[in-house]
Structures are given as structure tokens and as C-alpha cells.
């Protein structure tokens, strides 16, 4: 029997109004100067005040850092690391989507480590994270990345992505309050929602899956499948936003422990080469990757079909897995995300360079239930371009 390790964030608060735990959690660390890393749009719409005003009202010195950009390149991480080191901060709060939360992790870790952020990258770095960074609270404002409960910070390179990863990048507390997601536009709700769904699906079929991650992944799929369309249609639907928020959180826990695989490996080059948002990259690839690897995990896909709201009771695993792929195609279509690479203006001539970069994502590819060769990856990109789900010949 395989023994698997299951790691949770030490403290997590979820549910409508969970932000009330911000001050008590902050007090535990007795900070003098707090850095809040966030997206400039959140400052523009006033959402950051829901965090900064209570903190300042409690007497804390708070600095708002709004240098976050989508799919942050390594240069943005380097700039933030230097800003954090020179600013004398003793606590970091990440507020926003995955980019803001990942950069908050970089700020926390690099405040106590020497060298450049590039030195600590998984694929090319030569240094290791060796100690815990500044105390850190992570507060997501989207329901998608699960970054608040993972130990990974993703950064964009010239044509692909890489990560800084270590358990010291885990937050001291995660506060997951769906109230903060109400103002998220429908397009972002859709992309981040499919991102969360992808986390759960890939965790469930991962070679590192365990009974504990299975429970998290399946419940995440149920919550997301039952609420994403409603959240996209009406962002003020309190129940839909609550279920999406919890589903994303649970998917984050599932994939942090079991890992993600082929969809993410192929998505990273799309973000790196064409600056397609991570959620959209996962969304366009999800049905095609799962369709291609279907025969390696048919029983698992039957379970996913049930969680998506389908009925596999009278179907063979073969039939259920095919129905599962059809349902994945349907949900991506229903929330308005383009279903082909061509729909994102990716030319067919780019498929070779995408393949070359995806092959390098060995950390992710190793978790796939089907070994994906360079030729397999090329065929998946081609099918995603053509809009036709294919299987190995």
C-alpha cells in the first residue's frame, strides 16, 4: 500500500464574511510594518480598502504594493523582492488572484534569502529555499487558482513558465471570503472557474492521488460544476459565489497534494509565448488532454462524470469516459471560453515551439496517468488547434 503525505495550510478560514479573521490572525505575528501585495485594478475599484482600512484602524503601518501584473514575468518578481528587502517589512499579505498571491509568496521568501528570484527557479535555479520567510496571509479575490493553499509561486519566462516551490512558501493563514469575488467580471469568473475545475480533475487522475485527495477533488468538481455557470451569469448570486469559492479552495488542497499534470504542462507555454491567461490556457486544453489520455484512466473519468452531474450507473467505463469528455467540452463552451487555439489567435506554425517548451515541464508531466511523449504533446496541440478531440493511434 502506498503511503501518501497530505499537507494542509496551518489555518484556513472559508465562507461568507471570513475576512473578519484578518485582524486576529495579524495580531498573532505582532507586525510593525505590513506589505500588502495586490493588483492595481483592485485598488482602482476600492476592494483593497476592505483589507487596508481594518489594518490601519487597528494601528498597523500598511504599505500597498500594486506592481502586480497578470502572468508575472521574472523581472516583476525581482523588483518586488528588492522592494520588500529595502522596505523593512515584517509581514506580507497577498490580496487578489493567483498572480498577486504568488508574488506575495516571492516577497515573503526573498525577504530572508540572498540572490535573485531566478536563482531559486525549479528548472534552472541553483539555490534552494532554506528558511521560512516573513509571516504571510493570503486572501484570494477570485475562485480559481487555489494559490492560497499551495507552496508554489509561478513566474513567466521568455517563452514558458517556471516556479519557486518549497513548503516555506505556504501561508500562515488563508482567508477565503466569497464576498471579495462578487465584483469579478464574468470573463474572469469563467476562466478562473475552469482553472479550479482543471486542478480538481487533474488531481483526481494524478498518479499521486490518494483517498484524501480524491475526496477533496470530487467535492470540488461537484461544487464548481453546480455553480460556475450561475456565477458567470450573475456575479451577485451569493450561493454560487460561495460554492465556487469553497470549490476552488478544495481543488487547491487536492492538487497541492496530488499534483496537476498534462493540462498544466501544455498550458504554461501558451501563457509564456502568447500571454494567454492561465485559466484560459487550461480551459482550452482541458477537454483535449483528457480526451487523449482517456483510456489510461477510464474508471476515474467515470467518477468525474458523476461529480460533474452526469450518470454513469448504466454505462461502461469506456462509455462514461467518453461522456465525461463531452461534458468538459460543454462546460467550457457554456461559460464562453474559446474552444480552439485558433480562437486565441495562436497560429498553427507555433505548435512546434509550444511542443518544445511543454516537453521541458517534466515535474508536471510525471504525474500524468499516461506518459506523454513529445509526439503525444504535438498531437494534443494539433487537436486543440483543429477543435477535434483525438486519441493515440
Automatic annotation (TrEMBL):
Pfam families: ADH_Fe_C, Fe-ADH. GO terms for molecular function: alcohol dehydrogenase (NAD+) activity; metal ion binding. This is Alcohol dehydrogenase. Transmembrane segments: none annotated. Gene3D superfamilies: 3.40.50.1970, Dehydroquinate synthase-like - alpha domain. The keyword NAD applies. Keywords: NAD, Oxidoreductase, Plasmid. Belongs to the iron-containing alcohol dehydrogenase family. Residues 189-384 form the Fe-containing alcohol dehydrogenase-like C-terminal domain. Residues 13-178 form the Alcohol dehydrogenase iron-type/glycerol dehydrogenase GldA domain. It comes from Planococcus lenghuensis.
Amino acid at each position: 500500500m502506498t503511503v501518501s503525505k497530505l499537507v494542509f495550510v496551518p489555518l484556513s478560514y472559508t465562507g461568507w464574511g471570513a475576512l473578519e479573521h484578518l485582524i486576529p490572525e495579524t495580531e498573532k505575528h505582532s507586525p510593525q510594518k505590513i506589505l500588502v501585495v495586490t493588483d492595481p485594478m483592485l485598488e482602482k475599484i476600492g476592494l483593497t480598502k476592505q483589507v487596508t482600512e481594518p489594518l490601519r484602524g487597528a494601528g498597523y503601518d500598511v504599505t500597498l504594493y500594486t506592481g502586480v501584473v497578470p502572468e508575472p514575468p521574472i523581472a516583476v518578481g525581482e523588483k518586488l523582492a528588492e522592494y520588500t528587502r529595502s522596505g523593512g517589512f515584517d509581514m506580507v499579505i497577498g490580496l487578489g488572484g493567483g498572480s498577486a498571491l504568488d508574488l506575495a509568496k516571492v516577497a515573503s521568501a526573498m525577504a530572508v534569502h540572498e540572490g535573485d528570484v531566478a536563482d531559486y527557479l525549479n528548472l534552472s535555479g541553483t539555490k534552494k529555499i532554506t528558511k521560512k520567510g516573513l509571516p504571510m496571509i493570503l486572501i484570494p479575490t477570485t475562485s480559481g487558482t487555489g494559490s492560497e493553499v499551495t507552496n508554489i509561486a509561478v513566474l513567466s519566462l521568455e517563452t514558458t513558465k517556471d516556479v519557486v516551490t518549497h513548503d516555506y512558501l505556504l501561508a500562515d493563514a488563508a482567508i477565503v471570503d466569497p464576498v471579495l469575488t462578487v465584483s469579478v467580471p464574468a470573463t474572469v469568473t469563467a476562466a478562473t472557474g475552469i482553472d479550479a475545475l482543471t486542478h480538481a480533475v487533474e488531481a483526481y487522475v494524478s498518479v499521486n492521488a490518494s483517498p484524501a485527495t480524491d475526496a477533496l477533488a470530487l467535492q470540488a468538481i461537484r461544487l464548481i460544476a453546480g455553480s460556475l455557470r450561475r456565477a458567470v451569469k450573475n456575479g451577485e448570486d451569493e450561493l454560487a459565489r460561495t460554492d465556487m469559492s469553497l470549490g476552488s479552495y478544495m481543488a487547491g488542497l487536492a492538487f497541492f497534494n496530488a499534483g496537476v499534470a498534462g493540462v498544466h504542462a501544455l498550458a504554461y507555454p501558451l501563457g509564456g509565448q502568447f500571454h494567454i491567461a492561465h485559466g484560459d490556457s487550461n480551459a482550452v486544453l482541458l477537454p483535449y488532454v483528457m480526451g487523449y489520455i482517456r483510456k489510461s484512466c477510464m474508471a476515474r473519468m467515470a467518477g468525474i462524470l458523476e461529480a460533474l452531474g452526469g450518470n454513469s450507473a448504466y454505462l461502461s467505463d469506456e462509455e462514461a469516459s467518453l461522456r465525461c469528455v463531452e461534458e468538459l467540452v460543454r462546460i467550457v463552451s457554456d461559460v464562453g471560453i474559446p474552444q480552439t487555439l485558433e480562437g486565441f489567435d495562436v497560429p498553427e506554425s507555433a505548435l512546434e515551439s509550444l511542443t518544445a517548451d511543454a516537453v521541458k515541464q517534466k515535474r508536471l508531466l510525471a504525474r500524468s496517468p499516461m506518459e506523454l511523449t513529445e509526439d503525444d504533446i504535438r498531437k494534443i496541440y494539433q487537436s486543440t488547434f483543429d477543435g477535434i478531440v483525438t486519441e493515440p493511434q
